[in-house]
């Protein structure tokens, strides 16, 4: 009988079809859970010992065999054993090969259904730490980039039409905020990942009364699942994770899109480093933002994984169904892609340069100070709607005569409304436009400096976690 059948040989008379065997196997990818499953198996063995299922000597033998396997992890040691159905049966078969009948005792009071959920959660909990780290690194490069061009100004856009000037640092901080939420979200997901299902067995609960809370403590879980049927069929944590990854990628994709635009000849605000750009095989002049385009493209891939997992789960009757084996690749791929994109985005940001003069020029062309003129009129008692109308007419005059608002004469402006005085030119000035946005979260220099300080503090705290 092949190894595959040692898990359920008794009931079966014929061997599995070879093609089906390959189709059924998850070993190729779930070997990533190798260490996590071993740690959980050791904790389970200890729990069995506490209730007398294993003797001290038996536990010692099982524990040392599993620990030895743990130490081997990372070597390509088991490439030859790929015929195992999954990493869990692989570990068990290795244990039986090493210890004979004793190895067969480990599966007492446990099923692969609670085993897989446990290993998956344990593994994911740790991987989330790494993602949090990558988010923090990108946040740091955004703040560095903001400070590198502390005085720089950028045209802000709505509808991709020039709207109002903002500080470059303010734009950087916008993405910092998104990543701050991403971090919080991941931390929340991590809490819900960190619940122990082991002891739920196949679906009804373990037939031997292991102390689940003790197992949870030993493995560092924050709590134990409260319903065995739910515990073996719940993949909310995986869906939440791919959802949190999706939002990270959504943010990175928007960052990529902004920069792809900003590095065109049409905008010309930023230059990407050669290190993250490619050329054309045909057009010698080309320098393409492939790193950013790939980040934008991979967002679609991660959203697809998230949606795929939702659809896989939606029609499943309680409790475990083999459909759920599809959860691994969705999570693994989302994780790898998200981590890679965070790292590449950081490299892009670390090496990006801003053409401050050009960005500033763009921020002073195209009537970005029209709202400041309306605000000026409001300060002189004109109701905002009327002010809006008057300024609109002045913009039209500027458009027709190819001039900015600041190029109009005082007489021309006073012809529109006589509340305008010579100090109007101060109101139209770029610096005054910025300093006028003096609210929490506004782009006034003092406010942005304060947010940068807070951001630095936050990064400092995060780095200590
Ligand atoms: N490889 C399976 C998975 O990832 C493990 C659980 C199998 N359980 C079962 N009853 N067939 O979901």
Which keywords apply here?
single chain, mainly alpha, binds arginine
Oligomer state equals single chain
Ligands in the model, by name, code or SMILES, are: arginine
Mean pLDDT over the residues = 95
Secondary structure tally, helices: 19
Strand order of the largest sheet: 1-2
The secondary-structure element order is HHHHHHEEHEHEHHEHHEHHHHHHH
Count the E strands: 6
Q: Could you say which overall geometry the principal axes of the C-alpha atoms support?
A: elongated
Specify the structural class.
mainly alpha
Helix content: 55-70%
Uncertain spans: none
Distance between the termini: 51 Å
Query: How much of the residues is beta strand, in percent?
Result: under 5%
The biggest beta sheet reads: 2 strands, antiparallel
Rg, nearest Å:
30 Å
Characterization of the model:
By secondary structure, the protein is mainly alpha-helical. The chain has 19 helices and six strands. It has helices at residues 18-24, 27-30, 34-50, 56-72, 87-99, 112-148, 168-193, 212-219, 228-233, 236-262, 290-314, 327-350, 356-363, 370-379, 384-401, 410-416, 424-427, 430-435, 445-464; strands at residues 153-158, 161-167, 195-196, 223-224, 270-271, 353-354. Strands 1-2 form a two-stranded antiparallel ribbon. Strands 3-4 form a two-stranded parallel ribbon. The protein has a two-stranded antiparallel sheet with strand order 5-6. Helix 8 (212-219) links the parallel strand 3 (195-196) and strand 4 (223-224). It is elongated. The two termini are 51 Å apart. The mean pLDDT is 95. Arginine binds at residues 26, 30, 86, 112-113, 116, 320, 322, 324-325.
